[in-house]
UniProtKB/TrEMBL annotation:
Protein name: Metallo-beta-lactamase domain-containing protein
Organism superkingdom: Bacteria
InterPro entries from the UniProt entry: Metallo-B-lactamas, NDM-1-like, RibonucZ/Hydroxyglut_hydro
Organism name: Streptomyces lividans TK24
Domain Metallo-beta-lactamase: 19-228
Length: 248
């Protein structure tokens, strides 16, 4: 699979991988990588870095929205091969190590196999290594509150619910919110388009995920970069409000 790299703002790129997105933030040759796709997306991930004039050696850090297999796929590879720090919210650090797993089970997926799109999505998951575990052996919590001293100056914002340590990343100067799976614009098994929560089976704590929409609504921005689905343009508050309406 080739990388689908789209520039959405100055120095900001949304990359569509195998049903999962990641984001590249550039500052000269150096980059911040937000999420890494499925394990099977590795070639596309490396190609996407080349497409923006960078390389895995130039990745200053990998920021993880949450430690599900389709976002964590190549984080440990980059850490062990290139010495890249892998940073997450402190509550997500043990999840990345796989001290525990807050992810939908195969049994739950099979019980939902009757739903439109589930079987094709599951075939894709299996094909891209989505049931494999690639824990990060030495993940680290963010070193300080506020903007990180990395390309793009991303600000982590804790948005628990999908997982306990899920974070979105706010780029105030660019008016961008990288929303991971706390607020998406589509999914392979969703029948609606535009801002929404993921289907209920994917959330560790659905009530928490709904509550975190209020946190996202408080972030200034006009560009939403979700973990699943296309870029969404328009006030982030309106996107979060619409997702909340659709959740009930």
């Amino acid at each position: 699979m080739s990388a689908d790299v789209r520039q959405v703002a100055d120095g900001t790129y949304l990359v569509h991988g195998g049903n999962t997105n990641w984001v590249i933030l550039t500052d000269g040759d150096a980059v911040t990588l937000v999420d890494t796709g499925y394990p099977g997306d590795r070639r596309a991930l490396l190609d996407s870095l080349a497409a923006v004039g960078s390389s895995p050696e130039a990745v200053a850090a990998v920021l993880i929205t949450h430690a599900h297999n389709d976002h964590l796929g190549s984080a440990e590879y980059l850490r062990t091969t290139h010495g890249t720090p892998v940073l997450l919210h402190e509550a997500e650090v043990p999840h990345a190590r796989r001290d525990f797993l807050q992810q939908v089970s195969v049994g739950t997926v099979l019980r939902n196999a009757w739903r439109p799109g589930v079987l094709p999505w599951m075939r894709h998951v299996l094909r891209t290594g989505g049931t494999e575990q690639h824990p990060v052996t030495e993940p680290a919590a963010f070193p300080a509150d506020g903007a990180l001293d990395l390309p793009g100056r991303p600000v982590p914002v804790h948005t628990p619910g999908h997982t306990d340590g899920h974070c979105v990343y706010h780029l105030p100067d660019a008016g961008v919110v990288i929303s991971g799976d706390a607020l998406v614009s589509g999914h392979a098994i969703s029948r609606i388009e535009g801002p929404q929560l993921l289907p209920d089976l994917f959330h560790h704590d659905r009530a928490g995920a709904v509550a975190s929409l209020d946190v996202i609504a408080g972030l200034e921005g006009e560009v939403l970069l979700p973990g699943h689905g296309p870029v969404h343009r328009g006030p982030v508050k309106d996107a979060a409000d619409l997702a909340r309406e659709r959740a009930f």
